[in-house]
Each structure stands twice: as C-alpha cells, then as structure tokens.
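Q: Convert this sequence to structure tokens.
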Amino acid sequence: MGLEEQSFVLITVVVAVLFSFATASCSNGECKVLEECANNGACQSGEYCFSCPLGFVGSRCVRSQISDQFKLVNNSLPFNKYAFLTTHNAFAIDTGVPRIAPTNQEDSISQQLNNGARALMLDTYDFKGEVWLCHSFRGNCYDSTAFGPAIDTLKEIEAFLSTNPGEIVTLILEDYVKAQNGLTKVFIDSGLMKYWFPLKNMPKNGQDWPLVSDMVANNQRLIVFTSNKSKEDTEEIAYQWNYMVENQYGNGGMHAGSCPNRAESSALDDKSKSLVLVNYFESIPIKQTACIHNSQPLIDMLQTCFAAAGNRWSNFVAVDFYKRSEGGGAFQAVDLLNGKLLCGCNDVHACTPGSTSPCTM
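A:
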C-alpha cells in the first residue's frame, strides 16, 4: 500500500471515528432527529428511537408527534385551510388475537390522537347485533376479521375530545352498517353527539368551511363522513364524496409522478369539493417498508397531487404505521402542508405566529 493509500485510509478511519463519537455522544433526551440513539430516553421530546434498516444503519431518533398548527400559527381560518395527519385503518392494531386481517397501525387510538393524528379511517360493520370495526370483505364481518366493537373506539375519541377542548377530530368511515340508525345509535351511546358538526353547516359547491375558532367555540369538533350515500338523508351523516376528493388508495396511488382519483371520488381538480385527501400506503401493509414510504416518497406524492388537484394542497394525508420513517416522516409532511396552506412556506414553523404573512425564514 502506497503512502497516498495509507493516508486516505487513515483519514477515512479518523472521520468515521469522529462521526461515530459525534452521533453517539448525545443522551438523556438530547438526541435530535437522525442522531444515533440507544433508547427512547436518549431522544428529544416528540421523538423516539427507531430502526429503519432499509433507510439507515442502526437506531436513530425519528419524529413521533405532530406540530400543532393551531398553536403555532392560528385557529382563525376556515377548517379547509389546514392539513391533518390521517391514520389509515386506525383501528387495525395487533392485539394478539389471531386474525386473517392485516394490521395497519401499532398504537392505540388514544396514542394516535395524543401524537397528533386528527383524522381516523374506520371500517364499520354489523356484527353480533352491534356495530363493529372490521377489516373484512364483501361487506360482512367475521370473527377472523373483527377488531372490536365500535363503541370502544368511539369512547376513546370522546375521552380525547373531552380533555382537549381546542382540538377537532375527523372520522372517515368505510361504512357497511345496514341496521336502521345503527351508526347514529352507537354515536349516541358513546357520548360523541355533543361534539357533532351538523350536516347543515357543511359547505357545498367548494365554499369554505366555518372558522376553526368558531367550530371550537360552538363545540362542533367531530366531523363524520360515511361512504354510504343513503345515510346523508336517513341519518344526516355526511356522504364523503359530496365534500371531498381523494386519490387512489393502495399501490395504485403510489406511482411516482401520477395521482389518479379514487373511483368513488370526482376528479381531484373538482373544486366544488373543498377538501382534498391524499392516500399513500401499500395495498398490503408491510412494516419494514413503511419507513421508506412515509419519508421522501410521501413528500413527492403530495407535490404531485397538488398539481393534480388544481394547485390545491391536501387537507388530509393518510398513511400506515404513521410513526415509522427515516426522520421527519408523515409529521414533516403535514408540517409542509400546513406551511403551504397557512403562509406559503415549506414548513409550518416558518409561518409568522398569529397571522398568514409570508415566511419568517
């Protein structure tokens, strides 16, 4: 080995050692996003220690909580001027009960809400004489596809709204309940009706929604959409496609540079619907790849869907395994959306608090 080669090797070793020392030197809640960590306690608040072998070596701190745009900037704009983290099949959690249905999340509903998820996708079915949450097929729920009675999840949501009086939660139901007034009954029994945002107040023809501050003041902090068109007339539960456009879910919505609409949705650039939802998750959920999908590819898709939606940033971004990422993940994606919606910035943290003025950085 020549002198030049020896020097290069020596420099490489020194740099590697210094880098290792720098990344491993933080601890006790000091480690920042993407710094190496030994456990959750090493990471800063709002982060946790996570391994994404497809994305980086070892364990690093990644984000685990949303930035509250209402507190960072304001809550005085229409509801459709904000973006919200959405958990796909929020109820489909591995509880140790044998099922043939896949799981899409790892945290409880309460944990999802506490970490900043503000929209939950739930699949509702008739089962055992009640409304259950199932991940099933052909509109029927079975023991092997059932995750639990809907009322248990709805009570968790009620507890969150009760203890967080400034927050709004949106439920997007894939709805197979056929029992007459079955959905209405379970919402009444759960205690959620006192937060209900009334159908009559939902804007049509692309108009703005009420101000968030007014929704909070009126305690109308639960928005519910159903995939069953008839229930808008029979139970006054909003039919999702009258108010929202949505891109294709599953692998069909993950092709780079393409953002087609879901079959049930009108075209993404239909501005008679004032809410935009972007799905970005695989047809068959895989934990190991979620950390990659929830990172730069998600950001890229949001930009693609912005153009497809007639230069509108999405209000909801739905993902699987919402905390898995290569760093900022779905949380950073929502920060981007709120930055774009609130002040035209690439990050909500660059917005001027209390206003919609241009970026501060």
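The two ends are 50 Å apart (CA to CA).
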